[in-house]
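Allow me, if you will, to draw on your knowledge of protein folds for a short while. Thank you for your consideration; the sequence and its C-alpha cells are set out here:
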Amino acid sequence: MKVPFFRLKFSRSEQKEITGVLRSGWVTTGPRVREFEEKIRKLVGTRYAVGVSSGTAGLHLTLESLRLKKGDQVITTPYTMAATAEAILYSGAMPVFADIDPATLTIDPAQVKKKITGRTRAIMPVDIAGYPCDYDRLHEAVKDLKITLIADAAHSIGAQYRGKPVGSLADATVFSFYSTKNITTGEGGMVVTDSRRLADTVRLLSLHGMTSSGWKRHSGGSWRYDIAELGFKYNLSDLAAAMGLGQLARFEKMQRKRSRLAVRYLRRLKKLADYIETPASGGGLSHAWHLLIVKMTPGRWRIGRDRLITELEKRGVGCGVHFVPVYRFSYFKRSLGIQAADFPASEDSFKRVISLPLFPDLAFAEVDYVCDNLEALVKRYGR
C-alpha cells in the first residue's frame, strides 16, 4: 500500500462554485470574495473578515496596520513556518523569539513574558497542527500593556479554546487557505478581527491602497479613485473564494472525518506509548487536526528521526516534519544571529517530531497501515 502524506480531492460542491464564477465573467476580487468573507466571519464569530492572497499576506498586512517603526519588536515562536518571521521583517520590525511548551509545541506564555520590553508592539503566537495556544495566559502577559495580540492560526480554523472559536481569541487572527489546509482556496488567506480600523486598513492595503475596487467600478461606480496609502497586491480572487465556498459547504463533514481519523491514530498508537509520544489534546481545547504530529521517545530507539522517516517511506508511508525552527535556516542565522542553544525546547522537539498522513480523503485502512508499519519498526529498532 502507498499512503501519501497528503492527498487532495474536490467534490461537486467546489466544481459548481468555480463554474459559476467562470460563467459570471468576473474572476478577480468581487461578490464571491465578499460572500466568503461573510461566511468565515460568522463561522469564527468576529465582526470583520478580509480575504487576502495568502496567510503570509494577512500577517504582513495586519502588522502594517500597526504602523510599526524601525526598532519595534514583535514576539513570536521559532517553531513555525518561516513565513511568520518573514512577515515581521517585511513590516520593518524585529522578530524576538520565545521558546515553546514542549507538550503542545506552541509558544510558552512564561517565555513570552520574559521577552517583553518597552519596544514590544505585538505578540504573534502560532497554533500548531490545529491545537490552539494558551490564549488566556497570553492575554495575561500583555494585560494593561499596549501590545497587540495577532494569532497566526494558519492551522487551526475550526478549533476552539475553552468554548470560543479560534478567530475570536486575539485582536486579529490570520487564517491560511493553502492547498493542504482544512479549508483551501488553492492559495489564499483571511484576516478576522473585531476592529473596524484594522479591517479597513488591511482591506485598503491589500489592493495597492486604492480607495475604489475594480468590482465597485465595474458595478456602476465612478471610474475615479485615489491611492491613499502605499499598498500591496495581496487581494483574494473570486475564483479562489469560490473554491473556499465549496469547501465551506462540506467543512463540518471534513472536520468530523479528521477527528475520527485522529481518534483511530491515537487508539492504535496507545500500544506504542513507550516509543511514540502522541499530540496534546483535551484540556478544554478542541483540536482542528490539521496535522498529526508525533514524537519519538528519547532513549527508546536505536535509530534517529530521519532514519525512521526513511524506513516509513520505504514502506510507502509519506511523512513530514513540522517544523524546521527558523533559527536553523541560513538567512535567519546570518541576519538575526539566533542559534539553537537559545531555544532548547524547540530544538529537542524538532529532532524528534514526525507528521503522519492526515487528510479527509484518508481511509481508516490507510491509518491502520501506517500504524502497522510503526509497530514493525518499533520491533526492529526499539530498545
The radius of gyration is 21 Å. The first strand starts at residue 48 and ends at 52. The chain has 14 helices and 13 strands.
